[in-house]
Amino acid sequence: MLCFLSAEVPKWFTRRVQKLISIEEARSRVLAEAAPLPAESCALPWALGRVLAQEISAPHDVPPFDNSGMDGFAVRAVDTVDAGPESPARLKISMVIPAGTVGTRVIEAEQAAKIMTGAPIPQGADSVVQVEATEEKDGYVLIFEPAKRGKNIRKAGEDVPAGERVFKPGGVLGPAELGLIASFGIPEVLVHRHPRVAILSTGSELVEVGEPLLPGQIHNSNSYSLRAQCQQLGIEPTVLGIVIDDYEETKRLIQQGLEYDVLVTSGGVSVGDFDFIKEVQNELGVERKLWGVAMKPGKPLAFGVHGSTLVFGLPGNPVSTMVSFELFVRPTLLRLMGYRKTTRPPYPAIIAEDVNNPDGRTYVIRVRAWREGCMWHVSSTGAQGSGILKSMVGANGLAFIPGGPRGVKAGEEVEFLLLNEDLQEP
Ligand code: AMP
Ligand code: MG
Q1: Would you tell me which of 71, 288, 292, 415 could form a disulfide with 20, CB atoms 3.0–4.6 Å apart?
Q2: Beta bridge partners of 128
Q3: Residue 268 Cα: closest atom of ligand 1
Q4: 320 lines ligand 1 (CB under 6 A)
């Protein structure tokens, strides 16, 4: 459970955030509208991170035949019972079996086959002596230790026997899963379709990266962070670009965006004179499911549904945009992709500094998180304004400071989400 408004919060705090809903409530309203998309066929090389929409059973034994687990000699154990360092067994090498071939002769008494790892065990042999315990001489092999029946033989089906139902619908395909399906000889699988996502940045002050800035202008950064957040899920979104703060233009582009499974806009969703997103959503028949979340950054979030399109109006401040994506859009995309688990688990952590939160809203701060022993620690990445995108750079976590007059004190416990496991420095 994440920490939100608690019972101890004084009335004046709760009044200020009365119309807002908690992060958890907002997320459950959003997820209530999202169901896994239909299945499509996907070739294995492109299936990483996809979610299975079918069962998969092994069509044959894996491995398909008894084979050698070592480079060495396939022998009859009975011929080596008395073998030792001083009294090696001397067996005639009747054939060589490289991997990928089948030895055609039967191993008779006092015979051995030179065999490579992965090659089929020849008939008659019941064990493999690894090459390090042997010496080859004049068409014979000296064996310096007794072979044990079955030793160094990988039995047919010991990985997966034919018919075993290894994969169930809902399973996420990682490298090992893809490898095993490949070993079944199955070239493509049924997975839930990826959502088609459109990203639209609103704001007359925005210019594209690469263009010079005129007075009053800034570069459009949200398209880039949002696109990258989608790409981290394996989704390549369509970036519709920038729309100026003009009602008709906004309407035209939102209409385009409604052709997708998910439309994510940034900016223009607040209460400014030129914030047209909510009005345009209304006119186009987007059914509003929520507006306003008791969090900072990210309060002005407008989410609704239009036919089968999920429509997110994220706030424009670059940190608000990214945090809102993380908390609401990401779980939605994962659900559409078929994931059962859509949110990161909140961990407890010791916070390194006092954080005031003189506001009823949950304060979502950007932190560096690291482990000491079995405990997580978090520390603010610096100035935390919703326009300070640098606070996200180098942050590997988001920590939740409950609303209330006290905030939290250094050394107290907070909950946080680990965003990036690879980035952990004290
Ligand atoms: P808005 O939500 O439209 O009121 O925008 C809030 C703040 O975020 C303003 O300072 C905008 O200039 C800024 N902003 C909005 N969209 C973007 C964007 N795509 N890239 C960078 N900053 C933006
Ligand atoms: Mg704007």
Answers
A1: 292
A2: 74
A3: 3
A4: no
